[in-house]
């Protein structure tokens, strides 16, 4: 049986302190050191302190504390095992008596206290659950055999799933104390609430994060060699933007929803439908994995299917603690370092944590789900088009003060979309690395590229709301293409040094260190295990330290700007030097604590040339507005320091003079909202900075053409669209397989097509001018359009005193010879021509004078040039030519209203009903020329009706009513 003790490390690792024990064993602990434990204010506790090894009981937990923080920074203390580590510098350990040297364990030199078992509870165990547990819970099990025996004996527990030493169980009315007192249970956590989508609107814009720039200048990167997993409910894999690239791995949910399709479109859409369907990696293979279980999918799923990126765009409740989910994700990536999990931060930015160090701080530490607080994943927040924080965006810090989210990306519809952008860019980075080195890129290096290239948002350096900045996809790809990275391993207490040559006038030097850290224990209050450090030394012997953020639990500290210092919380560290005053920089990597085994790490570094400027949007492939509809921002990158300003101009490509848009624009903003006149032409932009001018690519200013169905007949179709001035021609595209391909080019705005010539029912139109395309139109499925075979609509209307108006609308008049209106001759049961009209427009009206008194029927026949005809449905109406009233239908079904029509309104008229014996039953007013009478109160049978007012009787007759 093992003795259980509690220990709390000041900074690191579930292995404690070898050299402290060694010091004790060789008798180097003097009376003054021992006295420190008695006098140090941290140890003035009322708990009962253990003063003799004889007092240590079997199967009891204790708390161990160290007088000095640096004494807790060693590797394993012989026989001790870390169970939980706390922020206050203590930790829980278990000790094996067979490995314990009682003579060497001087309890005057360390503080050991008795404790209860409350430390086993996760912070999301509610007050109501402090007595009885009901529902689903996670358990951490130290002894599998003891757990198995207990589970067999306890009918109120059933196992749902297990992940190694972690068990997910269903508990029915079992006392919490019952678990807390079991030595083999070291942690209890309430299972997270049901997952929920964190965006509902597709908000696809590749420009804010410079993804459009990759698609313009680095076109070979489309994701075609990669595979991405979407962990959500299943989605419509036949959607034309993602069809033909789905890999069935057997992990998909039985349920489907549109949110998963939207995330897949952002990551993998190929733009068949429109520019709003063009995603980040338009050729990547995609697959679905159910998120009904939000713990990691098996490593075999990733390895056997060659999946390195998995997107998680869902949330649960705010959870500010390191739970089993966080530990499992950290463990999986530590064991399979090529896997990258990308999580959305959540949309709970106005909430506060209900537990933990930052409890009750509104607007902070409100990320949705403890899995997102893992060290080895990426958690992504959202910003608007100008890189401003969105209030609903969930924010950091993590439960222990770490920087979360690590990155933000554009989205006005929730952090789900932002995570999908980052997943897509990660796919492109993986493709680039595989092309260069014929191997998979470790996730630590992917993270380092994404973080090192990110643009700081509102302040210089990271913060607890936007992490290390906003995704800059193009810059990340360039850093990889230029191979500005280092990968290596650190062993024991060694240092690694790397010399980097820096050109003149370098500014904004960044170096980002990322390592995949071993998993912490669930319920640890500090997650970092291996504490690596980065410093940068210049030729002036000045050390440049990484950014550090305050983790003090108050709003003022959490909102304060980053400073330079030593980081003991994050497994990501970044050094930034605004202006480099050295032609060589030395990157130094070291470790704060001894390492049990080697620790791999990744570094990405880069700099900018001072006083440089480049356009990123629009490129030569882009349009303004970006989708032809939404007012857009133009974007650039500038390395001008300070508050440098420029003057912005534009001109159409055939013009020689530049027109001023605005003066004195801040270059630091790197974006400007521009709403030009819709000219359907090509243009350029110019930014004038002092005596320098920076001219953009030639881009289009145009709006998408709408393709309309003219007619949809059995064997043929016609389409039409609006004319665009001074274009060369129009290109009609048809979906062939999974790709929109050119079907026909024409200078007309109407086209007729045989259906047999089309590969599918999906088509779109695009205009060309000067051999360049204007923006593409949105695809249509002609089967879903409201169109008939030439005749779009035909209806009739009785206009009392004038006649019957016939209204006809054609969907096309191309190929139409004439239109004939025919009238039904009820007496001879035949159709006679009423009017004949030449087809020269879409709409016609014809007034039929002198129609029949009473019931009238008519129809339309369209005569085509090819000899075929199109026949409309029959239309009917009632017309009154004399002073009598017309009643219909007769016989009348009780569910129908009786129509009582007159030539003109008779204000005092009423209709009365009598039975066949002449007894009056009921009367109704009929003052209008169109009256509708509800006779549901009458029984089935034959009735006499009379219509009259105070002076005149207008009509009488019989009416049959039946069910």
UniProtKB/TrEMBL annotation:
Q: Tell me the ranges covered by the Peptidase S8/S53 domain, including all copies.
A: 247-469
Q: Where is the Secretion system C-terminal sorting domain?
A: 887-960
Which regions span the lipid bilayer?
Answer: 5-26
Q: One Pfam family from the UniProt entry?
A: Peptidase_S8
UniProt GO MF annotations = serine-type endopeptidase activity
UniProt keywords, alphabetically: Membrane, Transmembrane, Transmembrane helix
InterPro entries registered for this protein in UniProt: Peptidase_S8/S53_dom, Peptidase_S8/S53_dom_sf, Peptidase_S8/S53_subtilisin, Secre_tail
Give the UniProt family note. Belongs to the peptidase S8 family.
Q: Which protein are we looking at? A: Por secretion system C-terminal sorting domain-containing protein
> Which source organism?
Marivirga sericea
Please name the taxonomic classification of the source: Bacteria, Pseudomonadati, Bacteroidota, Cytophagia, Cytophagales
